Amino acid sequence: MMKYAVSTPTFDGPFDLLLHLILREEVDIHEISLSNIVTAYLEEVSRMPTVDLDLATEFLLIAATLIELKTRRLLPGKDDGDLDEELALWEERDLLLARLLDCKTFKDVASVFSDLVSRADLSFPRMAGPEERFASLMPDLLEGVSPLRLQRAYLRAAAQKPPKVIGLEHVAPIRASVAEALVTVSDRLRIDGKTTFRRLVDGVTDRIEIVVRFLAILELFKQGRVDLGQVERFGEIEVIWLGIEQDGVVTDNYEG
Amino acid sequence: MTDNESTLDPEIVRALEAILLVAMEPVAPALLAQLLEISQTLVEELCERLAATYEAAGHGFQLVKVAGGFRFQSHPDLAPYVERFVLDGQQSRVSSAALETLAIIAYKQPLSRSQIAAIRGVDPEAVMRTLQARGYITEVERDDGPGQAVMFGTTPLFLERLGIASIDHLPSIADFIPDASVVEALEQGLRITPDDVPAPEA
Amino acid sequence: MTDNESTLDPEIVRALEAILLVAMEPVAPALLAQLLEISQTLVEELCERLAATYEAAGHGFQLVKVAGGFRFQSHPDLAPYVERFVLDGQQSRVSSAALETLAIIAYKQPLSRSQIAAIRGVDPEAVMRTLQARGYITEVERDDGPGQAVMFGTTPLFLERLGIASIDHLPSIADFIPDASVVEALEQGLRITPDDVPAPEA
């Protein structure tokens, strides 16, 4: 009934998903296409009864990080030995690795907790309390509680359940950018017909912008609206507009 | 001694002890008979025998029959110690969680634990046991529906402590909007079994 | 066996049983010691002896140390019977997301919500709100740093839920650090080494 609870034995939280994908398929960020990760993710999602927005957006965040790691190597001018960039890249990777390890550790601990809880559940505590003959000695818990205070407590309880707040502060820029990028990139492609990724990001300096344009291209590819080609690794990525314009570009995935 | 007894599974006696230990109120022999799948006569007999055993062993607790049911209680000899414990060892102010739960019961009674859980968004079990032990709420009836949920309501002691003559004298909540969401949750609580309710997001 | 014991009034043991029977939550040895006017060590010893006696006698209840205190509870063997009886009182399930958050808090406490988020990879707000409402975690202190983040820790109720006596009884975190093969697999998964740069055959 509370919509954002997604928990299946195989899926619980985006880091876990990444763990799962990496450990199972030995996903190599560099050698395996990101679209495989995305496809695997979508398959995973389709198996879930409901989609958790938190998890979905967090996955995007991680996907973006991964894509960023990858695009740093793919993008023109990014692999020509800038030591600082290289170090930053390692730092990011190590951070991600540390988080994944932490995540795995606590996931394992949680399963031990789960066993402890199941064992504890077999026993029921005695909670009946003192017999009525001691009642007069029991401190009156309601001392100082007026009918008005009880009414306020009721209204407080009735009003609780604040709507779920989604932490947009870290997600919003990415979400907005991808949706925008889809439009920008489609507009450009509609005019150019055939171009390269390099040209599509020409003049874009913000790294995250480049990442989301890459995401947008992947999305268009998934929707069958563009064809992609790359003659050699780290070579130019050709983007060819297929011009299928059924019902507009689907951007729903990126709108909360 | 009955005929049954010679073939009695010793586990039945242990189960009897276990049920009586966790019970909040005296348990009727009829219910015990049903739970243990033995006759009511045998229940009575076993309880009496247990009571005698505890007394002979000199335990600090006893098994007694009160209000038509059996229950564990502290031995009267030890009342001075229990009194000291009650005076010294008990929490003396109501928590806001307990007060909110009590308020929901006061205004919406009778209602089941799962209905309260649906309103509160969390399982009120621990809080309700405290309220029950303090004598502010009590089981009032069982729901007719499937599962026969226990329904709770407030007690005369509650009214007394609050200084009002009847539950109708509580300040009205009808004019407040949040009440609508409670009504909805109440309906939801009726359809859901207790262990589904408690905060699935946790 | 202590020196005290030879001179111990048998009433002390009975009083101990009586107090534990009327308690609504685990009773700390320090409180028992104060009420019974004996040493805390002796309290612990008497409780352990009582627990062993109950077990040996095959009672349907047990005395256990949980969440820093002693309490009576039904014997785990008899869960099927007791569950039938408490039908409404089923313990609510704790989801794996909640358990993971609890695990992080249990081992790293005190820590802030954003520190938990950094480990979990998701904003734990909803889960934490539920854990807090259910009384498994609580705000413990405020960070001294700028912004004064609220810090969280686990509660005695959490220990009760896990059925352990104290936080020190949690399994050592060192046993859960992923082994080399897992680290390697993860490292492999995130590999971005320069030797991936254009292989001749690509």
UniProtKB/TrEMBL annotation, chain A:
Stored InterPro entries: ScpA (IPR003768), ScpA-like_C (IPR023093)
Protein name per the record: Unannotated protein
Native species: freshwater metagenome
Lineage of source species: unclassified sequences, metagenomes, ecological metagenomes
TrEMBL record, chains B, C:
Gene3D superfamilies: Winged helix-like DNA-binding domain superfamily/Winged helix DNA-binding domain
InterPro entries for the chain: ScpB_csome_segregation (IPR005234), WH-like_DNA-bd_sf (IPR036388), WH_DNA-bd_sf (IPR036390)
Coiled coil spans: none
One Pfam match: SMC_ScpB
Keywords per UniProt: Cell cycle, Cell division, Chromosome partition, Cytoplasm
Cell division as UniProt keyword: yes
GO terms of biological process kind: cell division; chromosome separation
Keyword Plastid: no
Residues in the signal sequence: none
SUPFAM superfamilies for the chain: Winged helix' DNA-binding domain
The protein, known as: Unannotated protein
Organism: freshwater metagenome
